[in-house]
Amino acid sequence: MTTARPSGKATTASSRHPWRFPSHFRRGSFGWKGSRLAIERIHEALTEIRGVAKTDPILAAEGAVRLLERLSPALEHIDSSSGAIGSAVNGAIAELVPLIAAAPVQLKVRQKWLERLFVAHAEDQVPYIEWLTDFWGELCWSTELASHWADELLDITRLALSPDRTLRGHYHGTSACLSSLYRAGRFDELLDILATEEFWPDKRWAVKALAAQGKIDEAIALAEANRSRYTSDASIDRDCEEILLTAGQVDRAYRAYGFSGQSSGTYLAKFRAIAKRYPSVAPARILGDLISRSPGEEGKWFATAKELKLYDLALELARAGPCDPRTLTRAARDLAVREPKFAYAVGFAALDWLSRGYGHEITSLDVWSAYTHTIRAADQLGASDAAKASIRELIAAAPMGAFARQVLRTELALS
Fold it and tell me: I need a labelling partner for 6 at 20 to 30 A (CA). Which of 92, 143, 254, 300 fits?
């Protein structure tokens, strides 16, 4: 084989570095309850490899291969039911693949790495590194090596994906073959081998092949046609979004798929994730669309609006629906000097929600904080007397047994 990239280093002699992580990843190193320790060891190994990569990317790539080889045997006895260890391994794969792919080594060295990883993947019984073969084309780096791997795996893959149920079956190298065909630019072969396939993790390579040929609408249509109760909608959404973004169809991607898969994390985190993917879309538009998609939860977008300094909208949200009084109080505290008008209004909103009994496990300190920071903002406006009168009127209207009324009763001279 020819050389993939020029390199002054013909080999990756790992003996030049006294790797620490291998001693922690021997077969059966971790017991049934060893998930937490294993995750710590994985993070330590990644840190070590990351450090070596700063000065020697080839050596770091060799270390990455060694770690991936050792993961499954070391983790095979762990209780993986929580999913935490699986997530840690997937995170490691996502970090190590680009490092291996970018290493400037001769093609024969890369081929040796791939052979080692393929054996490790074949022996992955749990499995833990199953996802690795989705990146096989990337690991090959060159179209020449990718085409070589595609040729090696193609016959068995055709049988594994045969429409004849008596012939087809599981083959651990299927994803590696499809990924290699894609990297080699052999798109027509991909489309042919997947013509009757229904399993989305494999069928998605046909979608990617169409997109690579510039057939964007056909790719999206094929992906959408594969939705079913057995298919991950989130996976289809991610692939379609990536196809459209790569094709420069940003607005279409945003409208159709921009809000998919944003069910976890805080509301502010949801906004930031979308804003990061769509830097050309105005933040105010993103926030407005998020608000419209979550009726009844308007108050939970207050912190995002405040972060964007959309103070009028933030105040509207604070008043529109139940909003965490503590969140409003913090805003009043932080902005009492810089934005006293806004700080007073949100502090008053915090007291309003407290007077109505909203808030989780509210203490007297929470009530006093809301009152104190609201008055402080009013002082900045020169309106503390008027503020106290308004607060007194608000709290006086609360039910006699309201907690906020009890806390502020003496301060506001309530009966």
Answer: 92
The helix or strand, by DSSP H or E, that contains position 345, with its residue range, turns out to be: helix 340-355
Taking every pair of Cα atoms in the chain, the longest distance, rounded to a whole number of angstroms, is 92
DSSP 300: G
Name 152's Cβ contacts closer than 8 Å, sequence gap at least 6: none
Residue 8: pLDDT above 70?
no
Domain boundary among 79, 111, 141: 141
pLDDT of residue 5: 42
Write out the two tokens for 28. Answer: 């059966």
Distance CA 205, CA 207 (A): 5
> In sequence order, which residues have a C-beta less than 8 Å from that of residue 282 and are 6 or more positions away?
none
In a 13 Å sphere around the CA of 67, the CA atoms on its Cβ side amount to 30
Q: How far apart are the C-alpha atoms of 92 and 390, rounded to whole Å?
A: 57
Q: Which of 284, 302, 386 is nearest to 346 (CA)?
A: 302
- Same domain for 194 and 130? no
pTM: 0.82
196 and 98 part of one domain: no
Q: What pLDDT digit, counting tens, does each position of 15-36 carry?
A: 467 999 999 999 999 999 999 9
Residues in Cβ contact with 116 at an 8 Å cutoff, skipping those fewer than 6 apart: 65, 69
Using left for φ > 0, alpha for ψ between -120 and 50, and beta otherwise, residue 231 falls in beta
